[in-house]
Design a protein that fits this description.
Layout (H helix, E strand, L loop, with lengths): L7 H8 L6 E6 L7 H14 L3 E5 L2 H6 L3 E3 L27 H13 L4 E6 L1 H12 L3 E6 L15 H22 L2 E6 L6 H9 L4 E3 L8 H13 L5 E6 L5 H12 L3 E5 L11 H19 L5 E6 L2 E6 H6 L6 H10 L2
Parallel strand pairs: 1-2, 1-4, 4-5, 5-10, 6-8, 6-9, 7-8
Antiparallel strand pairs: 2-3, 10-11
Helix pairs in contact: 2-10, 6-7
């Protein structure tokens, strides 16, 4: 009879009593708009399940330095609209070593963190995988503006970053048209060209240069610029991914070859900042909440993803082994529309 009189929350707490009691959360690697929404969702979902939450500042670096704080619902109030990450982030070479990994696992145990949510990219998930192998229950949430995590169709921060870049490129095109210039606009994407591809389509660029295609022909670009000039076109926009780089020197070479004033604009880290879009806030919130629920279900070594319209989860090893390529059809469309 006593069991029948238990509330749903009491029954739930009884079920997880011997498993997850305290959840830690950290953001690692490059920051991305929407990370705060994910942190907020982790904190409030965990608290609603009767769990404690500890925030880890500055990613794995902060974990190794024991920069660990308790988080309440109030601590994440008024954060969902803010860019960056309230927990701050850093890169940590020590987590690539066995000694660093063992120290991180020991610190999690010292602070009673039996479930850890890691918000970041592939490098962050590799660290999470190592911690899982050392007995720390971990779930990864994909937070990167590069959209380069193969197991998911969506990564937190991409939508905001691509809209930030798109708006900046529109402004550059305006002045480029006024002066009849060629403009090379460099967007982020050291190893992946998704930002470049999407901006190229959205901004109607004449050329898109991506790290997936290193063998672009600069002489063909120069010939195309000249042909467009003869047809009366008043600007020429080249979207150049960070992984190709060399935008300033490229602009000098094109100007020397064509006689057309050519300017390079490097958008840089402005793409990481700014208030997240509705999409980034909503997806991040659901992914953060799902990460907590997975831990409460006894799952570990998982990555939350969004695939074919559904929120799903994958084994971290499986996720890291997946490969992601630029969709050839989308790239072909971009080239067709630039004619």
């Amino acid at each position: 009879m006593a069991e029948n009189n238990m509330s749903d929350k009491e029954r739930y707490l009884d079920e997880i009593e011997d498993s997850i009691r305290t959840i830690g959360v950290l953001t690692s690697g490059g920051d991305a708009p929407g990370m705060n929404a994910a942190i907020r969702a982790v904190v409030r979902t965990a608290l609603s399940r009767g769990l404690k939450v500890r925030g880890i500042r500055r990613g794995y670096h902060g974990l190794l330095k024991e920069e660990i704080i308790d988080l309440s619902a109030r601590d994440v109030s008024d954060t969902i609209q803010r860019g960056g990450t309230i927990l701050q982030t850093a890169r940590c070479q020590s987590m690539r070593t066995e000694e660093g990994q063992q120290k991180a696992a020991a610190i999690c145990k010292k602070y009673g963190i039996d479930g850890l949510v890691v918000i970041g990219g592939d490098g962050s998930f590799a660290g999470a995988q190592k911690l899982a192998n050392l007995g720390v229950n971990t779930v990864g949430v994909p937070g990167t503006i590069d959209l380069d995590i193969a197991c998911t169709d969506y990564t937190i921060g991409f939508d905001t970053a691509v809209n930030t870049a798109m708006e900046a490129i529109d402004k550059v095109r305006d002045t480029s048209t006024s002066h009849e210039r060629c403009s090379i606009i460099e967007v982020m994407g050291r190893d992946a060209g998704y930002l470049a591809l999407w901006c190229g389509i959205a901004n109607g660029a004449e050329r898109i240069l991506m790290p997936e295609e290193h063998d672009y022909d600069e002489s063909a670009i120069i010939a195309d610029i000249m042909a467009n000039k003869k047809r009366g076109k008043k600007n020429y926009i080249i979207i150049n991914a960070e992984g190709i780089g060399d935008s300033i020197n490229m602009a000098k070479r094109i100007e020397e070859a064509t006689g057309i004033e050519t300017r390079a604009t490097i958008l840089g880290h402005m793409q990481r900042g700014g208030s997240p879009t509705c999409k980034d806030r909503v997806y991040a919130s659901i992914m953060g909440a799902m990460a907590v629920d997975l831990l409460c279900q006894g799952k570990t070594n998982r990555v939350v993803g969004y695939k074919n319209g559904q929120y799903v989860d994958f084994d971290i090893e499986e996720a890291l082994a997946m490969k992601k390529a630029i969709p050839q059809y989308q790239y072909d469309v971009a080239k067709t529309l630039a004619l």
